[in-house]
């Protein structure tokens, strides 16, 4: 079982050494990657995903439990410890949802792996994140962008046993991110969120601040920030309620904006 993953700084876009020399994450920790558009967030998590060994343009090196990842980790998809939910998900499989999940669960296999129980758990998880529920008989290609990502997140967490999960801007997929965070927290894994969202950022243990392609700063979430996150939740819920009314085609009035 993996205990830590570490990324050693390389260089930014202009070739300058990164200010942050290394970031080490332990099992159970949540990290956010923040920074303006084009600052290198996706590139950073791609380095994690491929276990960069100094040969990518960034020169970063990823260590698993203090050691460079061996070829076995890198090349064998079944033992690959990292699941990446990308910013732009194009799904190639045309299988019905249920069959896709069954196939994946069977590949992951193992005894005592109740297929139906597992696929039900994935669907229930995914449907907590979407506005419109996913039907098990739909084809994967029929899912909306948000539904696809909700299903892939649930699938990665419940069926794939990858201990490290990288999520690139889930907030833009229109999935319910507060529910996502709550549900994800129940699974003991390392999560790395690329995010523009203050709520996700403040609920993380640390945040990596990107600038010019480099890790510019490493911040640890402070207690006041955690309290602020709590209040953000109330703001967010009231926004969500407004959004829901808009979605349902209602007209709004001032009294609908209530922040607890
Ligand atoms: N350290 C680096 N060295 C060289 N090129 C880099 C480096 N970091 C990022 N880049 C390049 O900069 C461009 C933007 O990076 P990236 O897509 O990672 O940004 P982003 O923060 O994810 O942006 P967005 O918010 O739009 O998703 C990419 O072409 C990427 O290859
Ligand atoms: Mg990106």
Can you put this structure into words, describing what you see?
There is one protein chain. 37% of the residues lie in helices and 18% in strands. With 260 residues, it is of the alpha/beta class. The chain has three domains: 141 residues, P-loop containing nucleotide triphosphate hydrolases (Rossmann fold, 3-Layer(aba) Sandwich), CATH 3.40.50.300; 60 residues, no CATH class; 37 residues. A six-stranded mixed beta sheet has the order 6-7-8-3-9-10, with helices on both faces. Strands 2-1-4-5 form a four-stranded antiparallel beta sheet, with no helix packed on it. Helix 3 packs across helix 4 and helix 4 packs across helix 5. The radius of gyration is 19 Å and the shape is globular. The mean pLDDT is 89. The structure holds adenosine-5'-triphosphate and magnesium ion. The site of magnesium ion has 4 residues, from helix 1.
């Amino acid at each position: 079982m993996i205990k830590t993953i570490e990324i050693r700084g390389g260089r930014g876009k202009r070739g300058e050494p990164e200010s942050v020399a290394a970031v080490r994450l332990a099992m159970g920790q949540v990290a956010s990657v923040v920074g303006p558009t084009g600052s290198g967030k996706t590139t950073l998590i791609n380095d994690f995903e491929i276990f960069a060994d100094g040969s990518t343009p960034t020169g970063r090196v990823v260590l698993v439990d203090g050691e460079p990842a061996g070829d076995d980790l890198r090349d064998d998809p079944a033992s690959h410890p990292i699941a990446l939910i990308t910013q732009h998900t194009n799904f190639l499989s045309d299988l019905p949802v249920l069959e896709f999940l069954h196939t994946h669960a069977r590949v992951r296999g193992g005894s005592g792996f109740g297929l139906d129980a597992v696929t039900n758990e994935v669907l229930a998880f995914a449907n907590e994140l979407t506005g419109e529920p996913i039907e098990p008989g739909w084809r994967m290609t029929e899912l909306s962008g948000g539904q696809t990502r909700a299903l892939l997140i649930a699938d990665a967490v419940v069926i794939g046993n990858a201990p490290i999960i990288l999520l690139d801007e889930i907030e833009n997929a229109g999935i319910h991110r507060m529910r996502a965070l709550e549900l994800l927290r129940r699974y003991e894994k390392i999560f790395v969120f690329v995010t523009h969202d203050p709520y996700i950022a403040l609920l993380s243990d640390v945040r990596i601040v990107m600038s010019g392609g480099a890790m510019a700063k490493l911040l640890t979430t402070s207690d006041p920030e955690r309290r602020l996150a709590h209040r953000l939740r109330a703001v967010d819920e009231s926004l969500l309620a407004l959004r829901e009314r808009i979605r349902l085609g209602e007209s709004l009035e001032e009294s609908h904006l209530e922040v607890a």
